Amino acid sequence: MKRKDYISWDEYFMGIAKLSGMRSKDPNTQVGACIVSDDHKIMSMGYNGFPAGCSDDDFPWDREGDFLDTKYAYVTHSELNAILNFRGGTLEGTTLYVSLFPCNECAKAIIQAGIKTVVYSDDKYDGTPGNIAAKRLFASAGVKYYKYEDTGRKIELDL
User: Fold this and answer.
1) 56, exposed or middle or buried, with CB in 10 Å at 0-12, 13-18, 19+?
2) Are 46 and 83 in contact, with CB atoms under 8 Å apart?
3) Which of 29, 39, 63, 77 is most exposed, with minimal Cβ within 10 Å?
4) In which band, very low, low, confident or very high, does the pLDDT at 88 lie, cut at 50, 70 and 90?
């Protein structure tokens, strides 16, 4: 008889997204993303951080102050990193699992990449202009999105 306590596909892929977010060096917000094909294969992953070749010791992690003195001018979001990390083929029709609902800039990249479904864990910016714009873009382009229903399952890894 097979095990019955195995994790679901949503738990698995959201777990991968959240684990990817743990790679982020951002002291305030760690976001991870995982792009998955229709047949449950991981196509790419990403987390929020500075572009390759840009030292995370040389750029600011601050959230407030002059724009050029904050992380916002330099950080690449997890969704865009996952799209850019993909090598070869197409992301057409795939699903993106992400720990934080995408901003409007990432929404544009998601649409352009052909991703058709977004599964998100947290929508802490719900109702903000960027969030409203992202949802409007998704609705216009036919990108479905839904909130991941947290199962409360705890998973511990010995690393």
Assistant:
1) middle
2) yes
3) 39
4) confident
pLDDT tens figures, 125-152: 999 999 999 999 999 999 999 999 998 8
Can you spell out the DSSP letters for 33-61? EEEE-TTS-EEEEEESBPPTTS-TTTS--
Q: Which residue shows structure tokens 């719900």? A: 126
* Residue 51: Cβ within 10 Å count: 12
* Tokens read off for 36: 């998955």
Write out pLDDT tens, residues 15-58: 999 999 999 999 999 999 999 999 999 999 999 999 999 999 99
Q: How far apart are CA 97 and CA 93, in angstroms?
A: 13
State the Cα–Cα distance between residues 45 and 21, nearest whole angstrom. 10
Task: Determine which one of 11, 64, 79, 92 is catalytic.
Answer: 79
Report how far Cα 89 is from the mean position of its chain's Cα atoms: 20
Any catalytic annotation for residue 156? Answer: no
Cα–Cα distance measured from residue 96 to residue 17, given in angstroms and rounded to the nearest whole number: 9
Q: What is the full DSSP assignment across 68-108? A: GGSGGGTPBPHHHHHHHH--SS--TT-EEEEEEPPPHHHHH
pTM above 0.85, yes or no: yes
